[in-house]
Design a protein that fits this description.
single chain; about 400 residues; alpha+beta; Barwin-like endoglucanases; 6-stranded mixed β-barrel; 11 helices; globular; lyase; cell wall biogenesis/degradation
């Protein structure tokens, strides 16, 4: 088939030229600049006494998140490795602890803490070259929407279009596994998919189902940034929607543009101030939002909580988005950072359950705050230093150290 041959030719040419766009898994579209050097992750042995606040956490709050992740992990092939170079072991190594977590009844925080101490060992997660950890926040956006257009509901939320093509570059070169190229085939040529402006001007006509019609274009734009949300319908019912695909275009941080143009000060920049500026300047808002060419396509979700990249519902205050080039999804982490815009310590058990396009680096996380205005306030103001430890099953921990994949301190 000539179209397929042309697609393969284009993809291979892009690979050879190293010009392909690498698209991480969905959920969350926050942008941070990538580091200039190629980083690697190192697990350094630690003890539970090294973990700040370890004995003070409300561990039972994290149990639903751990059980959901464990249920997902044990469904996978036993021989599948977890983490870079298999540092987190295999699925088989996690089945015993996961089955115990799922089946045992834990009546108190202390019971669950003692279980973790008896079955896991902590390792400090560090980057090489060494870099400071950064932790931001995200939330589940809320919008007003309708299943029919009109009466003020005019902003479409599209399902993935029929002509959207995703090329898995790993099928052509195993070293490119996990990297994808998104576009469309036009007259036998593989091209970038339509930009946000082109889509808003009607490029999807006849190609994509409209799931819902939003009321406020600014709220819908923030829904695109967060990747998932809840729509309140005119009759009061609520419909959860989540990330299904994107147009493959690079994300553009409009907050950075507002700072550079002096519309928002760097010290005051937050999701709140950006949203306020857009609402206060409707005559300029559309043009600014269109600078972000990235466009998100959605799907309806009939489950509790937004679905993260691991494929399980997220838990407010316990789910963390990470860079899975360095950490596998589904593993428990002990986080030490600060509450948003505060010096108060925030230390607790989290579970790596999601990813995001700006969550890049060995010690980089996005804290899921849940939904509603309080979650929006905390997520929008969070940009804190911090670090985390990964909890590995005993058998994995012994093998990691014995195989020398943990590098000694210099």
């Amino acid at each position: 088939m000539s179209v397929f041959r042309n697609l393969v030719t284009v993809v291979l040419a892009v690979v050879l030229l190293s010009a392909c766009q690498v698209l991480p898994p969905p959920d969350g579209e926050k942008e941070e600049p990538a580091g200039p050097e190629e980083a690697e992750v190192v697990f350094q042995p630690a003890s539970f006494t090294d973990l700040p606040g370890w004995r003070d956490d409300r561990f039972l709050e994290a149990l639903p998140a751990m059980r959901r992740s464990c249920s997902r992990l044990v469904q996978q092939p036993a021989e599948r490795s977890l983490g870079p170079r298999g540092q987190a072991g295999t699925i088989a190594d996690w089945r015993g602890p996961c089955e115990a977590l799922r089946s045992q009844n834990f009546a108190t925080d202390d019971e669950l803490r003692r279980f973790l101490e008896a079955n896991f060992r902590p390792f400090s997660v560090e980057g090489r070259p060494r870099q400071d950890g950064l932790f931001t926040g995200y939330y589940e956006a809320e919008i007003e929407a309708s299943r029919t257009r009109g009466n003020g509901y005019d902003v479409p939320l599209h399902a993935p279009p029929d002509d959207l093509v995703t090329a898995d570059l790993g099928a052509f070169d195993p070293e490119l596994g996990g990297e994808r190229l998104v576009g469309r085939v036009t007259e036998g040529a593989f091209q970038p998919y339509h930009s946000r402006a082109e889509i808003e001007e009607g490029a999807l006509q006849g190609k994509s189902e409209v799931l819902l019609w939003g009321k406020d274009p600014v709220d819908v734009f923030f829904l695109h940034i967060q990747g998932s949300g809840v729509a309140t319908l005119p009759d009061g019912r609520r419909q959860r929607i989540g990330f299904a695909a994107s147009n493959g275009r690079s994300f553009y941080a409009i907050g950075r543009a507002l700072i550079e143009e002096g519309a928002v000060s760097r010290n005051e920049a937050s999701m709140q101030s950006i949203r306020q500026w857009l609402q206060d300047n409707p005559d300029r808002a559309d043009a600014l939002m269109r600078r972000n060419k990235r466009y998100i396509f959605f799907r309806e979700i009939d489950e509790d909580g937004p679905i993260g990249a691991q494929g399980v519902p997220l838990t407010a205050g316990r789910s963390l988005a990470v860079d899975r080039d360095f950490l596998p999804l589904g593993v428990p982490l002990w986080l030490e950072t600060n509450w948003p815009n505060s010096q108060a310590q925030l230390s607790r058990l989290m579970v790596a359950q999601d990813t995001g396009s700006a969550i890049t680096g060995p010690v980089r996380g996005d804290f899921f705050w849940g939904s509603g205005e309080e979650a929006f306030e905390r997520a929008g103001r969070m940009k804190e230093a911090g670090r985390y430890w990964i909890l590995l099953p005993d058998a994995v921990a012994e093998r990691v150290v014995a195989q020398g994949s943990v590098k000694p301190e210099s």
